[in-house]
Amino acid sequence: MDVAVVGGTGKTGRAVCAALAGVGATARPLGRAAFADLPAVLAGVDAVHLIAPNLHPDEPAYVARVLDGMAEAGIRRVVYHSVASPYAPAMPHHLGKAIAEDVVRRSDADWTILQPCAYVQNLLPAVRTGELAVPYSTETRFGLVDLDDVGAAAAVVLTETGHVGATYELGGPAPVSVTDVAAIATDVLGRPVTARRTDPDEDVHPWLRAMFDYYDRYGLPAGPLPLRALLGRDPASVRAVLERDGNT
């Protein structure tokens, strides 16, 4: 199977490409240059995995452009990478993904939507410094998920049957706070890791500021059952990710 991974040069795209290679599929990572002639670039692929750039100013239009390119190239199968809780009105970039989901659902494509929670890997650079400083509460809870598990789930829905028309929220095995992550890291790495709430930088993007405000109040819970069903095993825990990647 030949899969075009739009956004395949970024962190998430690389994980999806690696997972596809692991199940014997061919992944074509596509960056911005592909948009010069998207139908020609997509010609001959069996499916598209679609990841928009972070904080894209008009994600629905971006997604529509990819869907149009797919239609012109005669490709029907698409997996759209959305986000957990895309319908939260307080987070503009989440709402952009919710609108983009609607664009996908109203297309003629054979679609699947993935809604992953925040990645454990997003916290690893701070963990390695010994101070897990974040611009939101260290006590609210998140369904932190292993990026490798997200990539594996994408490979499953792209290469196996039965997932057309499905939407899967992808969370880790248990809700955790940043304080919990620091305590686990201290134990796994054998050195102190502290958790501390900071104030966002003054020049932070307003959408990120809105997200931090939301996290400060509510965190981002997401359950494990869809990911467990897709993988046929429990999702990797924060401890497991730290044991594998904490020092790399």
What is the CATH class designation?
Alpha Beta
Which class best fits the helix and strand makeup? alpha/beta
- How large is the count of helical segments? 10
The tally of structural domains comes to 1
Query: Average pLDDT, to the nearest integer?
Result: 97
Could you give the distance between the termini?
A: 32 Å
Beta-strand residue percentage: 15-25%
Portion of residues in helices?
40-55%
Note down, in words, how this protein is organized.
By secondary structure, this protein is α/β, with parallel strands linked by helices. The protein has a single domain, classed as 3-Layer(aba) Sandwich (Rossmann fold). The protein contains 10 helices and 8 strands. A 6-stranded parallel sheet has the order 2-1-3-4-5-7, with helices on both faces. It has a two-stranded parallel ribbon with strand order 6-8. The longest helix is centred in the first third of the chain and has 15 residues. The mean pLDDT is 97.
